[in-house]
Amino acid sequence: MYSEILEKITSNDIQVCILRDDPQMLTDLPELDLLINAQQIHKVLSLLTQQGWVIYKNGKTISNKHVAIKIIDSRSYLLDIHASLIQNNIIYLDTESFFIHCNQISHNLYQPSSEAYLYHLFCHVVLGKNKLADKYISKLKQINLSDQAQNNLVVMAQSYGTAAIIETIYHDPIKILTDIDTVKQLKKLLQKSLMPMNRAYYWRKITTTYYQNIAPLFGRNRGIAIAFIGPDGAGKSTFIEQLEQRLKAIGIPTRNAYMGPWFRNKLFTTVFLDSIAANPKDEIFGLNQVTTPLSRTIKITKGLIRRYLYYINAPLESNYRYFRYVYLQSLRGRVVLIDRYTHDLEVGYKNREVKNGKFIRQLIVKFSPSPDAMFLLYNDPDTVWQRKKEYELPEIRWSMEQYLNIATKYKIEKIKTDQECSILVDQFIQQYWKIIYQKKADFK
Questions:
Q1: Domain containing 21 — which CATH number?
Q2: Can you list the alpha helix ranges (DSSP code H) found in 234-338?
């Protein structure tokens, strides 16, 4: 995949430097860092979009860095596209100066020379890490610069006023960069040396802070909320569990939240109403235990009061849970997978038919927060009944019919759970990953 897109980019007269010491080994990489001239970034992003990639970071949450993603067969491919060598809003070398010290691999495709790689690695570690990662140690042991290469390293560093610091690190990089205290001291010195070449540093810091921390409050750069409804036994819990695991595995921060109109109550009012058997059922609790007309009237009155208290409280419980478990998580850029929603209440109550309060239940659905996407999981009633035999088959059939009607009414996408859950999850990711990332994208 990476080789194909690199060939496509370079064939369009765009110079690309792969920020790796082993650019030939691209098969198993989770992501690939590319350095491209700032004037050609827009052309690259347009080309990637045409090839089915999604641009979900556009240089605002992270200065001078765009991120493109493509998912094929549930595997993610990431391109980190840099317009300069920058760490924590501090530019330590511009693209033009870096390309001078790169080696050409093929037409318009470059890799860093040993000295360019060292300069990039030294600055990257000192400015952005606590210490050198173990994976770089073996590579550093192999690098032995010629006199000319050492001179090139100094010349490169001199252009940004960092020659003395880079020379110090070069004499014993492993010892120096694996010591946390030394790296901390070098960071202050390197930042001070680079400041004259970073007059826009404070502006970059202000804008990135805004887009990372404040912009999500206005509904941008957020995560996405996806709700799944359906009768008991349709496979919702298993599907959500496996989907969450797969999304996390491909680098998408994900959480799950239960939003059903029964169970897992949070508000004290809901807990109290549940303790007095308040629910929307048609039958009045305990009515068959009284015989006198007056007692029946009192029992019916109390039952109706409890029923409508339930209806009054239901949107309060729903909105509270949505705010706490869905909205706040989405502000942090996470995908939230929602198990059940208020639409389940329009169907009935715990897989059973409810005839009363149809208009009220529709209002509760209407005035509940809307997730970004909703899916109905369903299957043949006989199959569902095999999984949930605590319900009668006619109840399952009725419930399934109502859910399908709800899906048509609200234009809810349907997923038939007639295959292995892992297969369904793979199909879901392949079909809908673009929706997830386009929703999570930075400000346009």
A1: 3.30.460
A2: 236-249, 268-275, 293-321, 328-331
pLDDT at 444: 45
- For residues 170 and 150, the answer to whether their CB atoms sit within 8 Å is yes
- Retrieve residue 143's tokens: 């690098």
Q: Is there a single domain that holds both residue 95 and residue 118?
A: yes
Instruction: Judge if 202 and 306 occupy the same domain.
Output: no
**Per-residue pLDDT tens digits for 88-110:** 999 999 999 999 999 999 999 99
* 25 to 3, 30, 367: CA distances (angstroms): 10, 12, 53
Decide if 344 contacts 350 (C-beta within 8 A). Answer: no
- Residues 141, 137: Cα–Cα separation, whole Å: 6
Query: Does 51 share its domain with 148?
Result: yes
pLDDT range class, residue 47, cuts 50, 70, 90: very high
Q: Which tens digit of pLDDT belongs to each residue from 5-43?
A: 999 999 999 999 998 766 556 666 788 999 999 999 999
With tokens 């849970």, the residue in question is 321
Rounded Cα gap, residues 426 and 390, in angstroms: 31
Question: For the chain, what is the domain count?
Answer: 2
**Would you say the pTM of this structure is higher than 0.90?**
no
Q: Which domain holds residue 204?
A: 2-216
Are residues 132 and 240 located together in one domain of the fold?
no
Tokens for 321, please give them: 């849970």
Structure tokens at 377: 């999981």
Q: Which of 58-62, 69-73, 149-153 has the highest mean pLDDT?
A: 149-153
Query: Are residues 357 and 331 part of one domain?
Result: yes
pLDDT in tens, 269-303: 999 999 998 999 888 777 777 768 887 788 889 88
CB 231 within 8 A of CB 395: no
**DSSP structural state of residue 442:** P
* 236's tokens: 């919702």
Cβ atoms < 10 Å from Cβ of 322: 23
Does residue 233 share a domain with residue 185?
A: no
Claim to verify: residue 130 and residue 271 sit in the same structural domain: no
Which CATH number do you get for residue 322?
3.40.50.300
With contact defined as beta carbons under 8 Å apart, do 382 and 329 qualify? no
Last residue of a domain, one of 188, 216, 244: 216
State the amino acid at position 303 in one-letter form.
G
Per DSSP, the three-state class of 261 is coil
Average pLDDT over residues 436-443: 66
* DSSP three-state, residue 368: coil
Q: Tell me, yes or no, whether 19 and 145 share the same domain.
A: yes
